[in-house]
Every structure is written in structure tokens, then in C-alpha cells.
Amino acid sequence: MKKIMKTDEDVHMISAEVPVTFARACEMFILELTLRSWNHEEENKRRTLQKNDIATAINRTDMFDFLVDIVPREDLKDEVLASIPKETIPGAGRLSDGFPYCNMPPQDAPHLELLVS
């Protein structure tokens, strides 16, 4: 994480807490996108997460609007786009898929740690 941040020529020094904070934010982002993608996969009664599940999660959720250019709509199959109500397409101004903003466990929940011997 620190190497990536140092690639910006404007960054001179990074405190020790910053990479840890960014790593946690990335973890939360990946978890949220994965859960929303998994919800779409479950709706279609499949057991394999596919690229179109991720694209649909991005298109259904306003907070992922910044990813629309990275995962363009033409990657979605026609039937997937047809299944998305027009009011859920980004720019509609509201979350309408019924899921809360974040599905994260409480901060004091037990975490699995990788033990290195």
C-alpha cells in the first residue's frame, strides 16, 4: 500500500496509520461490492459469481457510480439490463435495491487472523 501511495510525486511522507487505514477501507469496499454482486447471483439462482453480477451491482448502487466507466454497461447482457428497474440505474438519486449501505460486522466482532509459524 505504501509503495502505491509513494508513486504520487506529491506524496513525500506517509504516517504509519495511513496504509493501515487505506487497507481497511479497501477491505470494506471489496466486501461491499462482493456482497452486492453475490445478491444478484443468488437472484439468478446460480452458484458462480460472474462479471455481469459485479457490473449489475455497480449499476444498481449509487455509491458505485464512479465505477461505471471501468465496468461499462455494454458488458452487461441484455436480459440483465432489462431486469434492472429504471429507477435503480445510477443517476436516479436513490438506492432502491433494499440493501443497507454497508453490510460490515461490528468493529468489536472477532476477526480471523493468519498465523505464521
UniProtKB/TrEMBL annotation:
<dbReference type="GO" id="GO:0046982">
    <property type="term" value="F:protein heterodimerization activity"/>
</dbReference>
<dbReference type="GO" id="GO:0000978">
    <property type="term" value="F:RNA polymerase II cis-regulatory region sequence-specific DNA binding"/>
</dbReference>
<protein>
    <recommendedName>
        <fullName>Transcription factor CBF/NF-Y/archaeal histone domain-containing protein</fullName>
    </recommendedName>
</protein>
<dbReference type="GO" id="GO:0005634">
    <property type="term" value="C:nucleus"/>
</dbReference>
<comment type="similarity">
    <text>Belongs to the NFYC/HAP5 subunit family.</text>
</comment>
<dbReference type="InterPro" id="IPR009072">
    <property type="entry name" value="Histone-fold"/>
</dbReference>
<keyword id="KW-0539">Nucleus</keyword>
<dbReference type="Pfam" id="PF00808">
    <property type="entry name" value="CBFD_NFYB_HMF"/>
</dbReference>
<keyword id="KW-0805">Transcription regulation</keyword>
<comment type="subunit">
    <text>Heterotrimeric transcription factor composed of three components, NF-YA, NF-YB and NF-YC. NF-YB and NF-YC must interact and dimerize for NF-YA association and DNA binding.</text>
</comment>
<dbReference type="GO" id="GO:0000981">
    <property type="term" value="F:DNA-binding transcription factor activity, RNA polymerase II-specific"/>
</dbReference>
<keyword id="KW-0238">DNA-binding</keyword>
<comment type="function">
    <text>Stimulates the transcription of various genes by recognizing and binding to a CCAAT motif in promoters.</text>
</comment>
<dbReference type="InterPro" id="IPR050568">
    <property type="entry name" value="Transcr_DNA_Rep_Reg"/>
</dbReference>
<keyword id="KW-0804">Transcription</keyword>
<dbReference type="InterPro" id="IPR003958">
    <property type="entry name" value="CBFA_NFYB_domain"/>
</dbReference>
<feature type="domain" description="Transcription factor CBF/NF-Y/archaeal histone">
    <location>
        <begin position="1"/>
        <end position="58"/>
    </location>
</feature>
